[in-house]
Amino acid sequence: EVQLVQSGAEVKKPGESLKISCKGSGYNFASYWIGWVRQMPGKGLEWMGIMNPVNSDNRYSPSFRGQVSISVDKSISTAYLQWSSLKASDTAVYYCARRPSTTGAPFDYWGQGTLVSVSS
Amino acid sequence: QSALTQPPSASGSPGQSVTISCTGTSSDVGGYNYISWYQQHPGKAPKLMIYEVTKRPSGVPDRFSGSKSGNTASLTVSGLQAEDEADYYCSAYAGTNTPYVFGTGTKVTVL
User: In this complex, do A105 and B48 lie within 8 Å of one another by their Cβ atoms?
Assistant: First the structure.
């Protein structure tokens, strides 16, 4: 069974750093890109970026480039989303999702989401 | 890249059909046949319902169907059931550097 299991909820202060994780199982982790999607409270889905676990090739949405960093450790089938300095506006649920390597492929499996709350 | 435009809400009675539109541009919806639709129940992760405009993943009921004409894609849910009440998001491919553009989302209510 394909599963993407994300790390637990986080409560942080503005200016703090954070790294959340997404562990894949039940499939060949290296054969699928991993993406991250933000959902702010009561709002829609926003694509943040994707990464190829094989060679770390990546794409970022212009809205998130320079604001977050995506990485993977294929040895432990885990992807990460990282902030160096959080802002209150980063408060949201963050989903990881798997994407087949073919052009135009959708996100076919999703993690359960990680709630990040940033407040002073 | 702007979000694709969806109506905020749609509704229908059990057994009826509801169609949700997703309007973009020739650079995304109109440019490629890579349109996906996701269903999201409150507090849950999105679930893939349609991909490549018309294809359904294994396990998705055939009550869900997709189509596209020009810069507008559509999702139709036939024979509405109570469990279809959810938020629905479209997504379109807009090129190698922008593989995903999401729609604004539509809340479907089963009356």
Answer: no
